[in-house]
Amino acid sequence: MIPVALIGVVATFTFAVLAGAHIEPYPSSVKPGSTNTIAFGIEHGCDESPTTKLAFQIPKGATKVTPQGAIGWTGEVTGRVVTFTGGPLDANTTGKIGEIEFTAPKKTGTL
Question: What's the predicted TM-score (pTM) here?
């Protein structure tokens, strides 16, 4: 199994003030070489700033990357980065921002 907890390590946030949020992938692991859909939920924003943009760096070796934004969100792929824009998701609300379908690298390890 490949843990995917770190697929969103390079998550960036566009806020009035730079803030952070807790982002959880589901499922948290996938089989090497398999096609998967990973959903991303956001627990909350910070400092009363709404979340309007998140960017995820896709690991080397992942292929067929297709984002699907949740209601109110759009996803696009540029190079090895998937960007979701939309919302806004206020700082006190839990929500789903989207999911990414991809074929995992064949090599085991952490994404």
Answer: 0.74
Domain count, the chain: 1
What does the pLDDT read at residue 44? 65
Asked if residue 108 belongs to a domain, the reply is: no
Label residue 66 by pLDDT band (50, 70, 90).
very high
d(CA 26, CA 82) in angstroms, rounded, equals 16
* Residue span of the structural domain in which 23 resides: 2-103
> Length of the chain, please?
111
Beta strands across the sheet bearing 63-69: 23-26, 35-42, 95-103, 63-69
Our CA angle for 9, 15, 16, nearest 5°, is 150
